[in-house]
Design goal:
The chain is mainly α. It has helices spanning 2-33, 36-55. The model has no long low-confidence stretch (mean pLDDT 75).
Length: 56
């Protein structure tokens, strides 16, 4: 049971890392184009990454 919890924790952190990397890419794209819709998508992606991090 303990091994499962450690593996699940690692999986959660990998998902958080992926969410952060995606948000970073979106930030780069949105800041270069200054597109209002993309900037809103970045805000949403960052909020989702934050929620995943807090759950991990």
């Amino acid at each position: 049971m303990k091994r499962f919890m450690v593996n699940q924790g690692y999986t959660d952190l990998v998902q958080v890392e992926g969410a952060i990397k995606m948000a970073q890419q979106l930030i780069g794209d949105a800041s270069m184009k200054m597109n209002e819709n993309q900037i809103e998508a970045v805000n949403q992606a960052m909020l989702q990454a934050k929620v995943q991090y807090q759950k991990a």
